[in-house]
Amino acid sequence: MHVVKAIIYTLLFFGILLINAALLLIVDFDDQEALWNNYIFFTAVFELLLVIIFLTITKYFDQSKFHIFNSKLLWLSIVLGVSFPFVQTPLNWLFNTLFNTNYFITYDFGGTIQTWPNIIAGIIIIPFAEEMFFKLSVQTELQKTLSRGKAILITASLFAFIHLPFVIIFIEPSAFEFHTAYIAFFIGLISSWLYSKSDNIWSSILMHMSVNLMVTLI
């Protein structure tokens, strides 16, 4: 039953993402250019608000999970997040070998050209929303009956699922790929392990933030 709940919650989160995108597409904004330039920011803020509402209504919003008590694990979270893009190279090699693709990272640290609101959304808001949702509701629910390892594995798998670009199927089916979800699975494994180890949401949030920061810089 707890696994079913976790899956349903994940589908709800995926629904939030779809509604989020749909609203911005159908609402008539006065300044369309400003909308698209800050699209990630607007969707991220809306996503975070819906996640907070969901966690509050379902009573998964546990303030004790935000208390910092193990600074060593927090530092470990940052180190793991910063180093992940470099670990991604062998992960890409494995993916390319298995599926005959050509994904790679160029470590030129040239940075990604984005607006500041979008950068803030990617580094801060999105990690907050995703980690709070998947750790406070999905993983918490799974840990009620499953072993730590199984809960971590399923949480990471569900986290990877929401990173599959389903929307693109309706726009350009040939562009559908699951490399992003593949990488997200490993990020989910690490962040879920950190949360399980620390019983503190900051460990997974900081890890996720660090990964996204490095992705932005690289």
TrEMBL record:
One biological-process term from Gene Ontology? Answer: CAAX-box protein maturation
**Which residue windows are transmembrane per the record?**
7-27, 39-61, 73-93, 113-130, 151-171, 177-195
Natural source organism: Fulvivirga lutea
Xref: Pfam families: Rce1-like
Protein known as: CPBP family intramembrane metalloprotease
Q: Does the keyword Transmembrane apply?
A: yes
Segment forming the signal sequence: none
Keyword Membrane applies: yes
